[in-house]
Design a protein that fits this description.
mainly alpha
């Protein structure tokens, strides 16, 4: 059994790390995110079951895996991502297909790179402990990570990496050497200068974040104790934003408003979804983690706290938990922190813990595997639609998928579009309405209005076009669709009113679509 454990658990960890940086399933609709989670989820849930079973038959006197073995996969993942980014900067390797960024490694945007480098650096630093030049190695790896983050322009990543570095250095200095205050201060000064410089060139981004937090504040005030529930932000944020932007004093800010899927602040997300209860639970969990680390001071606990510090700071400005590598790093940090404690608990409690973990992992697999299979089938169906259009066989596939994915707003959105293209307007409107109820945003409001128009429900169509325009005042399409609706209905006065609004509307980003819309409006108003 010990030999089997020494072989199996490292294999699980290395496989999990690979699944975090290379999407497992490229056929799903969102391969860069969902494709990673499918591979990571399958590996981790299987790993939980296998580890729990092996722990039942181990002697329980020592951890199943050392901190060093836990650190290597994450350190290697961070190094791989940093090298990949450097190759992209040099033009040797290209960005993933469809990415709007040139330097993102294999992620969808720079936030994924930032999260990966921040959570992997403490493990790189830990692996150098004991080497006579450990400080040099730690500073070099820190500088490499900071350079990559500066190149991709990640302010959140730089601040979070600085928090990791300061936490690790200042806490470890009391164990191995005199305080490294000068080194830490110099590093933080460079980080601060880079962040300030980038902030001066991203004033629009700063104002946009303030708008998002204002809307989140309104949502929190309406449900301060328990929040709006799981996925409450996704379900209601854009409705609140539409109401806020109607105020006369928000006209300037409205140019920055766009479709928002995350508040760019994990704590704001927790407050909106779960209220004060969720924030208290989160703070208590972090406090217990840190207090345990303080009581059991070691290089292992310092590395674990550094991961938590980096993730905690990054969650103030980004969405690190969107990427499975962050979850893997936090799991590794928890294992490093509490591994010895688990080994020291009584046999009866340890057996109960292992059985609970095994049952939980098996239950998770029972739910996860059908979901992953359906995501794969949906991705295949979506690509078949792109290639061949609507066919009877394709619609039958979507109908079967609907039975399992009826609570997935992204699937419902795609399903509604496919049904609309097939000519089944009523069914398309029902699917679009279901999607809108679970994810009320600009895209779903616009699709719902289009499907309602096909069904002849002009009152609802008008209200949803106006709602889409209120959600994102900078967009031209909702107003143009409303303009065309009024023209079809012969409502000339309202049509001209909307036309004047379109022609006088400030343009945030020039595009062919906007030019065609404005030209069409001018021509139609001249004919009138």
């Amino acid at each position: 059994m010990p030999k089997l454990i020494r072989f199996t658990i490292p294999l699980i960890l290395w496989t999990a790390a690979v699944s975090c940086i290379v999407p497992f399933d490229g056929a799903v609709c969102d391969s860069l995110i969902v494709g990673r989670w499918i591979g990571f989820g399958a590996v981790m849930l299987t790993g939980i079951v296998l580890t729990a079973l092996m722990a039942l038959f181990s002697d329980g006197q020592s951890p199943l895996l050392s901190a060093t073995a836990l650190s290597w996969p994450l350190a290697a993942a961070g190094l791989t991502i940093a090298v990949h980014c450097m190759l992209q900067v040099a033009g040797i390797v290209g960005a993933p297909a469809g990415s709007a960024f040139k330097v993102v490694a294999t992620f969808d945007n720079p936030a994924g790179v930032a999260a990966a480098l921040v959570v992997s650096w403490p493990f790189c630093a830990y692996l150098t402990i004991g080497h006579r030049r450990s400080l040099l190695f730690q500073c070099v790896t820190f500088a490499v990570c900071a350079l990559v983050l500066a190149v991709i322009g990640s302010r959140a990543g730089l601040m979070s990496l600085g928090a990791c570095f300061a936490t690790f250095m200042l806490l470890s200095s009391k164990i191995r050497r005199p305080a490294l205050t000068v080194t830490v201060l110099l590093a933080l000064a460079c980080i601060a200068a880079s962040v300030i410089w980038m902030s001066l060139h991203k004033t629009g981004s700063n104002s946009g974040r303030i708008l998002i937090l204002d809307v989140c504040n309104s949502m929190f005030r309406d449900a301060p104790l328990t929040g709006h529930g799981f996925h409450g932000f996704r379900r209601e944020y854009m409705l609140y934003q539409a109401e806020l932007l109607k105020r006369p004093d928000m006209k300037t800010v409205s140019m920055l408003a766009d479709n928002v899927t995350h508040p760019l602040n994990g704590y704001a997300l927790a407050a909106v979804n779960f209220g004060v209860s969720g924030i208290i639970l989160l703070v208590v969990a972090m406090a217990l983690f840190v207090s345990y680390a303080i009581r059991h001071r070691s290089m292992e606990s310092i590395a674990a706290v550094s991961v938590l510090a980096g993730t905690g700071v990054m969650a103030l400005f980004s969405y690190p938990m969107r990427y499975p590598l962050t979850t893997l790093a936090l799991v590794a940090a928890i294992c490093i922190m509490f591994g010895n404690w688990v080994s020291s608990i009584p046999d009866t409690s340890r057996t109960l813990l292992c059985i609970t973990a095994c049952v939980t992992g098996a239950a998770g697999l029972a739910v996860f595997i059908p979901w992953a299979v359906n995501q794969h089938r949906w991705g295949q169906a979506a690509r078949e639609f792109e290639l061949n259009g609507c066919t009877v066989e394709l619609l039958e596939k979507y109908d079967r998928l609907y039975l399992s994915l009826e609570h997935d707003p992204y699937f419902l959105y795609n399903y509604a579009y496919v049904l609309s293209q097939s000519g089944d307007s009523r069914k398309a409107a029902m699917a679009a309405r279901d999607s809108f109820e679970q994810m009320a945003n600009y895209d779903t409001a616009l699709l719902l209005a289009d499907t309602e128009k096909e069904c002849g429900e002009h009152t609802l169509t008008e209200s949803h076009y106006r709602l889409a325009s209120d959600m994102c005042p900078v967009r031209f399409m909702p107003l143009y669709s409303l303009f065309m609706l009024y023209e079809e209905q012969g409502r000339k006065d309202e049509m001209n009113e909307i036309g004047k609004l379109i022609l006088s509307k400030p343009i945030k980003v020039q595009s062919d679509t906007v030019r065609r819309i404005r030209l069409s409006v001018r021509q139609r108003m001249m004919v009138d």
